Amino acid sequence: QVQIVESGGGLVQPGGSLTLSCTVPENIFSRYAMAWYRQFPPGAREMVASLNRAGTPTYKDFAEGRFTISTDHAKNTLHLQMNDLKSTDTAVYFCNFWNNDNVLGYWGQGIQVTVSS
Description:
By secondary structure, the protein is mainly beta.
């Protein structure tokens, strides 16, 4: 069992910003690719952004230019900075850590993000 510590999220007005974070043990952080997903109940999860082992980011179209995925290596933490939030961004956001030996990987418990005036 891997402990993932999540933070961030909450209620924000349209146009506002939030930063989500997930902290994992160093052996996970250094060996796994990383991604953020979101889920609109009751639908499936969709990828928001990802980082491969080389640190190259990839964004879905809706996230491009508004969201930034990044890491803090000193703190073994993955971040998702979200700007210009829209009501359509309201969802539960999940961090995911995976590699070729563990393709399902490890998931955070989910962080609620609500964008509403």
